[in-house]
Design goal:
Layout lengths: L1 H24 L4 E7 L8 H6 L3 E2 L14 E6 L2 H5 L16 H6 L3 H8 L1 H8 L9 E6 L3 E6 L2 H5 L1 H18 L6 H10 L5 H15 L3 E2 L5 E2 L3 H7 L3 H4 L3 H8 L1 E6 L5 E9 L2 E9 L5 E7 L1 H10 L3 E4 L5
Antiparallel strand pairs: 1-2, 1-3, 4-5, 6-7, 8-9, 8-12, 9-10, 10-11
Bound molecules: zinc ion (ZN).
Length: 317
Amino acid sequence: MRALTISRTEVLRSYRTASLRSYQANSDIMEGWVWHGARDSRECAFCWSQEWSLHGLIEPFASHPRCRCSPIGRTVGWEAILGEKGRGIPDTRPKIEKGEDLFEQLPDERKRAILGPAKFAVYQNGELKLEDVAGFRRDKKWGLVGYERSLRDILGPKEAKKWMEKALNQGASNVGKAESPRDRIERLIREGKVTQDVVNEAERLWRERLREGVRMPNGEVVKIALDDLYHAIVDPRIWRHPDRIERAIANVFEIRASHSQRRQAYSRWLEGATGQLAALVLEKDNRLWSVHLIDERRLQRYTKKAGEVLWRQSEQQ
Ligand SMILES: [Zn+2]
């Protein structure tokens, strides 16, 4: 894993260095570079704090290991290139935004996930700005490196401890209140991981084709409650094609025993010329617990670990 981190970081670093050099070489038309992050759930608080910040051409790109951000060159305005003639030309360059403002627009759950519970609590309380988490240090090998400062570092040990305990207690009071499948899907919509359209489409399909249950080739009917649907559509390969739930059940070729009186079922079908494989988990009352698309290797791994064969499609059928 470490070797992978180093090689990936090296590749990105040489790419960034090359980018920065070419911006510098074109200093007559380049004004600087803009920090551009992945803007997904894996982006760290440090990188969020740098998002869309404008840097001078000679400033180094102070990223950290595993950072996936890159410097995007920013041209000078038309007036700087064309002089008087450029004055009336509208500025079509992307607007420079502040990482702080972009971050503020994220749903609370995402902010909490990025900052962690304690920093998020301080942030919500208005005592922490995103830029406070940005730390920089000189590294012999990597040069200027950015990192996320600890709450202790930002607030001092006494204040940090207070907030960490507070966040811990808040977390504890949430324990036991398990998130319902409906709440979970609503959270995923808020976090931008699933869209409302996708959920609407899956619900429509459920009303039309799944709510009465789907028959497996062995004659048993698998029941699917709306909550089971919300479970199943968390896999993108299912929510992009919710019809696969029905196909997976209708094409089961083997059922095996599993733990807690559950059963595992495997199915295979064709979509155009492409073969699909799925693994299903059935609850003891025949409710669909989960459905995932798998590949042959995973199927072999699953069947090796699974219990005895309870039913298998015969060759003649
Ligand atoms: Zn980054």
